[in-house]
Amino acid sequence: MNKRMHAEHATAASIQIEPFRSDHIQPALDLWRQCSGIALSEMDTPENLHRYLARNPDLSHVACNCYGHLVGAALCGHDGRRGYLHHLAVDSDHRRMGIGRRLIHHCAVALQNIGIPKCHLFVIDDNHAGKRFWQRIGWQVRADLRIVSRWIGFNVNPSVR
Ligand SMILES: CC(C)(COP(=O)(O)OP(=O)(O)OC[C@H]1O[C@@H](n2cnc3c(N)ncnc32)[C@H](O)[C@@H]1OP(=O)(O)O)[C@@H](O)C(=O)NCCC(=O)NCCS
Q: Looking at the domain that runs over 3-136, which CATH code has it been given?
């Protein structure tokens, strides 16, 4: 059975939300690469994602179907004050089933459980569908902030965001 046939048989109840483990990194990268609205950077290597998960234990989550295949993923971390979400994506054949909402709920509860009361995320400005999703699930798209960035490392490559 291929991925689309799995999706046709999937029900919301058959999708499990689980903590993001190291063995989810490669399938998550495969998903993120297929999704417009997700901007992977040169830092999104398997090694760096492994490090991210180790630095932020039990905060990031994946969604898996009844065959154990990853159909959604969200990275979640914190800096001691605020939480941060990155790279929320749901497989295109599994959207509008509540998986994105459930992934974010699990990440938010995990942050609350370690005393982090507020969370931020980045949305590409022309990702209008993404913004509609966040607003629909109760998040505020803020117009009062801009990201300010500068390359500070040795591998300066101004063409990469
Ligand atoms: C955004 C995304 C994660 C949503 O995942 P999803 O599993 O389809 O979302 P859900 O089914 O949990 O939807 C939750 C609510 O948002 C609504 N919603 C979802 N996508 C929407 C959209 N494009 N426009 C308007 N509302 C939307 C749903 O209707 C639902 O509302 P309801 O519960 O009141 O009916 C998914 O579309 C995706 O992977 N997009 C590409 C990657 C991306 O842009 N990620 C965000 C990066 S910031």
A: 3.40.630.30
CB 73 within 8 A of CB 31: yes
Q: What is the pLDDT of residue 5?
A: 65
Whether residue 36 is predicted with pLDDT greater than 70 in this model: the reply is yes
Overall residue count recorded for the chain in this entry: 161
- Nearest residue CA, atom 46 of ligand 1? 130
Supply the angle between the helices 46-55 and 25-34 in degrees, to the nearest 10. 110
99: its two tokens: 């998986």
User: Phi and psi for 8 in degrees, rounded to 5?
Assistant: -65, -30
| Centre of ligand 1 from the C-alpha of residue 149, in Å | 28
pLDDT (average), residues 134-161: 86
Gap from CA of 152 to ligand 1 centroid (Å): 34
